[in-house]
Each structure stands twice: as structure tokens, then as C-alpha cells.
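Interim report, section 4.2 (structural modelling).
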Amino acid sequence: MTPATFLPSANAAPAGVSPAGLIRQLRRYPPVNFGRYLKFIVADQHVGWVQREFTDHLRAFPQVFDLDSAHVRLQNRLADFEARSAAMAEVLEAWRDQGLVPGWRHEFYPVARGFDLPPLLRMERAATPLFGVLSYGVNVNGLVGSGNDLRVWIGRRSPSKQVDPNMLDLLVGGGQPMGISVWDNLQKECREEAGIAPEMARRARPASVITLMIEAPEGLRVGLKFNYDLVLPADFTPRNTDGEVAEFRLMPVAELIDNLRSADAFMYDIALVQIDLLVRYGYIGPEDPDYLTLIAGLRQAIPFDPS
Amino acid sequence: MTPATFLPSANAAPAGVSPAGLIRQLRRYPPVNFGRYLKFIVADQHVGWVQREFTDHLRAFPQVFDLDSAHVRLQNRLADFEARSAAMAEVLEAWRDQGLVPGWRHEFYPVARGFDLPPLLRMERAATPLFGVLSYGVNVNGLVGSGNDLRVWIGRRSPSKQVDPNMLDLLVGGGQPMGISVWDNLQKECREEAGIAPEMARRARPASVITLMIEAPEGLRVGLKFNYDLVLPADFTPRNTDGEVAEFRLMPVAELIDNLRSADAFMYDIALVQIDLLVRYGYIGPEDPDYLTLIAGLRQAIPFDPS
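Predicted structure of the assembly:
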């Protein structure tokens, strides 16, 4: 007897066969080569990673950073959140003026070993990969229907976006800065990115988290994303209000699966969010030889030494 | 604005507050003290853990095991699956006759570093904690309704069960031995444990996996469970046919949450399965200070050295 998992595709696979091939998404980036980085230490805690090639820029601030062959330490004389944040802001503004921090956001991210720990300092969002600190985001899967008739709202990013222009994206997703709860941020992003009214946005439900690690040209991206599901009425049409989305379409789940196993059209982190969705709703099962590898790959451990 | 997560309980928490306190379930067992164990090595691969106190029993089989201060090695002259399995069977049968392997099951488990890897040998299920090898299971959440009206079928284990008599359990759950697919095993367990006919059992959908590690008196239990959701009609009543279940009841989700955060009435691994369910359906969200710790605790890394 074969399992009655949902049909991955009407023409690509027989009923009951899991959609092998999704693993390609996890292979889009090689494993991180941590030998290329120094550990970034704040208050004796390992909170990030700095590219070795970048350390010359840190040496220009000997009153802020101590460096050895394996570590960049924010000096312990910077003894509290405000002192550390002010020193970091001065460094980052100087680098910005030198063109070292592209895409300044005017948004602060908390720096700590985890989202659930008190922040040791705040840092401009655009600088988080330079220090390889954890950055956060919130994502909303816009869903219509269920089973083989599930459709997922997919956005194509504006050609003018700084990161991943034109790539496929979720209905709603955004960074999770300091000073706003995940829930309030979700409401704000729903309104700005898809024109979703508060009454509808409040139906979103937390569903999972994913983590990701990517070696980008500017440094290490270490991310944790809070994922929500939002079941939408069939007649709802999203409407972008902030110019960040070129177009939206409602993609049948079979097309979503085929896309994920044959192309790199989705942003990397959004591909992981989609695989997480396929796992949670049973479009992938233990029959897929990659099932456990996929699940493990969605939530890799954050690569900081224990305190 | 507070999030519209489901009400954890009508009288225990205001609307929109996540059910803090579930973390107690993850604290029922202390972290594993790996210093108490030797690594079990087969074909130069780390596949398990043996209690130091148990090693005298292995020394009685010098033709099968090599021991040093940190390792128990199945001898490499046992060069293939059949040779290793035959040697292990001889050892285990001798131990069984000495009363060292209680609860002999006549079921074989595969021994390997992961479910998705070729097995190096087969091992009687009852012996898996003695060698701290991975054991597998399949679980089915029986669900009726949704949102605040969700109800979950819960079983109470028979007083005569060898493991965890009288504790609360799922609708359906069982070990996952060699020689039967996860899907076929699920169908069989649905029939035996809850009288669920094949037409209904086939509606089950894979939803997640959990892992667990427990230091039991007899050794280290390292488990990986495949979890399925099965939405049942409101008029369905389960009927146990194998004598392993004392009773079934349909537990409202608010009661389930209250139970999990105030008592240890559920089997440990089933408590994790229930928390996983609460995470996936949004009864817990980022507002819970333990949200990320709970999610991480559901799927700890399997503690074997990489090959």
C-alpha cells in the first residue's frame, strides 16, 4: 500500500509519491566555512562572526575593538547596552560614509545570542552581516484552499529591491527590528506589503520558525524567521502599497513544488519557508529519501559558542 | 495590539496570551550526561552509547566486542549486515536468558547513524537502549474540530503495559521496526490500537518529526518519531483491539494545554508530540518566552559523531 500524500504534480509524479528533489534548495549555498571568520564577542559572549578580510576596518577603531587571531571583542569598558550601542553607531556611521554599509535601513536589530535573551547592544540592520549577528524576520504564508487544491500567494520582488530583485517571495515578509513586537510588525507588513486589513491580518497564526546561514559577499547572514499562516478568502486580492512587490499571483501547490525542485526562482530563505509549509501540511513524508535531511535543514543550530 | 492566538484556557489566561509553562515538559529529564557512556562503534561509525556499568556484560563476548576506555566496537571481522546481525543476536539471546533484556519484542530495529542510511545490522527492539542506538516510532494525532474548538483524542495506557502504564498517550502510536514501511505500519497500528478502518486511516498526513534522548535505568533511549495528523469525523469513536489502551477520550485543546503545563500525566515523548501540535497550529507563538526553546527541544540533534 502506498501513502495517500497529496499529489505533488498531476503530470510529474504518480499519486502517493513524495516530491523528491526539493533538497536542491538546501544545496544552493555551500556549508559555511567558519575558518574565514573571527568570532565576534560582546560581554564575553559569542554573538557573531566577522570576515577576516574585513578586520582592517575594525583596526581603525582601537578604542572600540580588541582583535586577536581568532576573535573580535567589543571592549568590556563598554559596559552596558547604551555605551555599546553608541560606540557601534559611531563605527557604523563612519563606515557608511566610506560606502562600507550599503542599504542603510534606519532600523535597529538587537544583538544577543538569541531572540529570547536581553540584547547586549543595538545595531543598524544593514550592518548585521558585517558582524554575522542574528537577524530576525517575520513571514506570512497566504493560503487559499487545502489538499490538492491548495494555492499559495506568491509575490515577485520589485526590480528595484536591494536584495534579490525580481525573485519570488511570500505574500508578506519583512525584517523584525527592535521596538515593535512580532505581532504588531506582522500587522504593519500585511498592510504595507499586501494591503491586508487588520481584521484579516489578525487571522494569521504562528506556525513555525526557520533558521538560515549564508555566506554573502559582505559577511555571514545568520537569520531566524517567524512564520505565520494566513488562510485567505478565495476572492481576496493582495495590493502592494510600498512599491516593494512587482506582482502577486496565486500559485497552485503542484506548481509550487515543481518550481522548488527544478529552479532557484525563490529567494533562498523563502524556499525554506515553502518547504516548511509542505512538510507541515503533509505534501512531503517519510517516503521521501530526503525527508529528515530537509527537516533538519530548516532549523540548523545558531552557530554561536555556549556562554 | 495583542495577537489573536487561540485561547489556551477560558479561565487560566486572558485572550491573546501564549501558554507559558509548557517548558516544564522539556525539563522532566535532565540533560544527558554522556560521560556515563562509551561510544558504540560499528564499521567505524558511531551509532550508539553503552552505559559504563554495563560493560562487564560485553567483556563476556571478546569474540564480538573490543572495548577501550571510551569505545565499544563491534569487531570489524564482522564485515557485513548478516554477520553483524547474527553475532548481535547470539549476544542478546544470552543476555535475555540472564534477564538482562526485559520485554523482548520479537521485532528488529535497523542500526545506523540515521533512518535514511543503510542499516549496518538489525537488533531486537528491547535491546536498543542497552546500546543507545536510534529507535523509531510512528504517531497519529486524532483531531476533531479546529481553533478554540479543537479536540484531541487521548488514550490512557493499559495498566499492564511494560513502559509507562496508565500514562496518557496518543490515539495511535507504535514502534517502527524493520521490514514494514512507515505508512503500512501506521495503517496496522491504526487498526490494532484504535479500530480505525483503512479508508479512514489513509486520510492521515505526515506533519513533523520529533527526536528525544532519555537516560533510562537500562541505558540511553535515543528516539526519532514520525508524526501524522488524522482529522476524524465528530461521530467517530476509537476502539482498542490489542488490549494496550485502557480508555480513550476526546480532550478539548484548552484542557490539553492546562494538563501539559501543570502535570506529567503524558508519556514524555507524547508530551513533545502534543507541544509540536500546539506549535504547528498556532496555540503557541513568539510571545511565549519559551517559544524558541520549545521548538529547539522538539528536535535535538541525534548525538552521534559524524563519520
